[in-house]
From TrEMBL:
InterPro entries the record matches: NSF_attach, TPR-like_helical_dom_sf, TPR_rpt
Entry's localization field: Membrane
SUPFAM superfamilies: TPR-like (SSF48452)
Protein name (database record): Uncharacterized protein
GO BP field: intracellular protein transport; SNARE complex disassembly
Protein's membrane topology: Peripheral membrane protein
Source organism per UniProt: Selaginella moellendorffii (Spikemoss)
Top-level taxonomic group: Eukaryota
Main location: membrane
UniProtKB keywords: ER-Golgi transport, Membrane, Protein transport, TPR repeat, Transport
Summary of the function given for this chain in its UniProt record: Required for vesicular transport between the endoplasmic reticulum and the Golgi apparatus.
Keyword hit for Amino-acid biosynthesis: no
Length: 288
């Protein structure tokens, strides 16, 4: 008998058991076991939706039995199956699981699954929802003092905030992570990158005074920053904006990119900054 046929047989047995008579606890416990077997065989058969549905039923049985932890993990198992082709159903199952974990005080586990939800929204390019999910994950990781994971999630929050043009929020997060990393010898080397990201968000405003003030703050925050390529890059870009020199801005970007390849996010921010500068130049021309 193949896996799919076995899965259907176990599910049928579970349905019969559920409809039959028996002691409350035993009836549901036996049904859980059968549905678990059905779900596992559906997984082997790569029948992901049916496997997920069985895991959901297992979770519901555990809720009736007041097995909260087992219920939550079954919702997570369902989500893993839904991830194959039904991301929104996966998100719904994970949200149900996280609610149960939060009620139980399992904050680190809840944080992990908020992060999972963020990743699913990210794949769907739903930046607002992704940002909110990563922010929840960061908060709970921070509360449990899992600093490394909290910072990873915070950086995702900053990334999506900047994509949504919520620059003050993105800047605040990048600067916070930079400050938090200064006291850690393993993380200190990353500070210049966080400060560069914050600086690029500042550039999108085309306000050269605000940019210069930010650079001065970063010099105070990290005494080594002044000697980095990232610092020179920001200073040169700020100077180009102050001089309203689009050609100089472009040359500065090309020079930096030739030594340190710019990723997609930085390229997007720089393009926005360049467009903001052009718009400011046009505005100034209109006033003269």
């Amino acid at each position: 008998m193949d896996a799919l046929a076995k899965a259907k047989e176990f599910e049928s047995k579970a349905d019969r058991k559920l409809k039959g008579w028996g002691l409350f606890g035993n009836k549901y416990e036996d049904t859980v076991e059968l549905l678990q077997q059905a779900a596992n065989h559906y997984k082997v058969a790569k029948s992901w939706d049916k496997a997920a549905n069985c895991f959901i039923r297992v979770a519901e049985m555990h809720v009736k039995l007041d097995n909260r932890y087992e219920a939550a993990t079954s919702y997570v198992d369902a989500a893993k199956c839904y991830m194959k082709n039904k991301p929104q159903d996966a998100i719904n199952a994970l949200n149900t699981a996280t609610n149960i974990f939060l009620e139980m005080g399992k904050l680190s586990i809840a944080a992990k699954h908020f992060k999972d939800v963020g990743e699913l929204y990210e794949k769907e390019e739903k930046w607002q929802e992704a940002m909110e999910s990563y922010e929840k994950a960061a908060d709970f990781y921070q509360g449990e003092e899992v600093t490394s994971s909290a910072n990873q999630c915070k950086l995702k929050v900053a990334q999506f905030a900047s994509q949504l043009e919520l620059y003050p929020k993105a800047i605040e997060v990048y600067e916070t992570v930079a400050k938090d990393s200064m006291g850690n010898n393993l993380l200190k080397y990353s500070v210049k990158g966080y400060l560069l990201s914050a600086g690029l968000c500042h550039l999108c405003s085309a306000d050269h005074i605000a940019i210069q003030n930010a650079i001065e703050r970063y010099e105070d925050l990290d005494p080594t920053f002044s000697n980095t390529r990232e610092h020179k890059f920001l200073k040169d870009l700020a100077e180009a904006i102050e001089q309203e020199d689009v050609e100089k801005f472009t040359d500065v970007v090309k020079e930096f990119d030739s030594m340190t390849r710019l990723d997609g996010w930085k390229t997007t921010m720089l393009l926005r900054a360049k467009n903001a500068m052009k718009a400011k130049i046009d505005e100034d021309d209109d006033l003269t």
